[in-house]
UniProtKB/TrEMBL annotation:
Membrane topology: Multi-pass membrane protein
Signal sequence interval, chain numbering: none
InterPro entries the UniProt entry points to: T3SS_IM_R (IPR002010)
Primary subcellular site in the record, as a coarse category: membrane
Any one Pfam family match given in the protein's UniProt record, by short name: Bac_export_1
Residue ranges crossing the lipid bilayer per the database entry: 6-24, 36-56, 62-88, 121-144, 172-194, 206-229
Entry's family note: Belongs to the FliR/MopE/SpaR family.
Protein's cellular compartments: Cell membrane
Originating organism: Georgenia wutianyii
Keyword annotations from UniProtKB, A to Z: Cell membrane, Cell projection, Cilium, Flagellum, Membrane, Transmembrane, Transmembrane helix
Name of the protein this chain belongs to: Flagellar biosynthetic protein FliR
């Protein structure tokens, strides 16, 4: 019985943590093997074992119900964090769309999505910055905090989760526009200039030069957008931690 009182809480906590790691960045990246995620989930659960408790007379049916609840909590919090950090990849996709790189879309097996060069580049930079700046510690800290507000067997408030997901979706587009905003403005002005040039001198066929010109502008000014990513990733880490806190409090 004593062994069960130790193993059962750790197993339930490991389920919540592992599902979270599978869904939430930066751990959801395909370059991290599933075995490593499972081992990390068990390791984090063991680290919190002293604070975990379950009813002594836990039945098999109750255990299954608690396991489902833990998976839902881990998945819900993971989706919330993933939505926050999707702003970086969305900014890259905006650059791809307006800069003419969208034609080079390819399937990325690491993220299981189709994206252009800048979308994949920004997403990789975000993952690197999360590890380099210790932003992942805020994400894991928010998950550990969830065990205090939502102990084993608790039910996640789906209404609060839906409200935060809706707010996170708005924040996603706002952050993406803020990241790619300067480059988007320059590309828009380039289109306007080409349009005016075509209107003044139709024989020049200015739009034939539009694609190479926009690609040159995107590659030249893309460094400005990349230089802003460290601050953006740090801010998104704080937002992810805050979002988890609002859901589990």
């Amino acid at each position: 019985m004593d062994a069960a009182l130790v193993v059962v809480p750790v197993a339930l906590a490991a389920l919540r943590v592992t599902v979270f790691l599978v869904v939430a960045p930066p751990f959801n990246h395909g370059a991290i093997p599933g075995t490593v995620k499972a081992m990390l989930g068990v390791g984090l659960a063991l680290a919190m074992a002293s604070t975990l408790t379950v009813p002594v007379d836990l039945t098999a049916t109750a255990f299954i119900g608690m396991a489902v609840s833990e998976a839902v909590i881990g998945g819900g919090l993971g989706v919330l964090v993933a939505l926050v950090f999707s702003a970086v990849q969305t900014a890259g996709r905006l650059v791809d769309m307006l800069g003419g790189f969208e034609l080079g879309q390819a399937f990325d097996p690491m993220t299981m999505t189709h994206s252009g060069p800048f979308g994949r580049f920004f997403q990789l930079i975000a993952v690197v910055l999360l590890f380099a700046s210790d932003g992942y510690q805020l994400v894991v800290g928010g998950l550990a905090r969830s065990f205090q507000a939502l102990p084993l067997g608790a039910v996640l408030d789906l209404g609060s989760l839906a409200e935060n997901l809706a707010g996170g979706l708005t924040q996603l587009f706002l952050a993406a526009i803020q990241v790619a905003g300067p480059l988007i403005a320059v590309l828009f002005l380039a289109d306007v200039g080409l349009g005016l040039l075509t209107r003044v001198a139709p024989a020049l066929n200015a739009f034939a030069l539009g694609f190479p010109l926009k690609i040159l502008i995107t590659l030249s000014l893309g460094a400005i957008t990349v230089a802003a990513l460290p601050g953006v990733v740090s801010w998104l880490s704080d937002e992810a931690f805050r979002g988890i806190g609002e859901v589990v409090r």
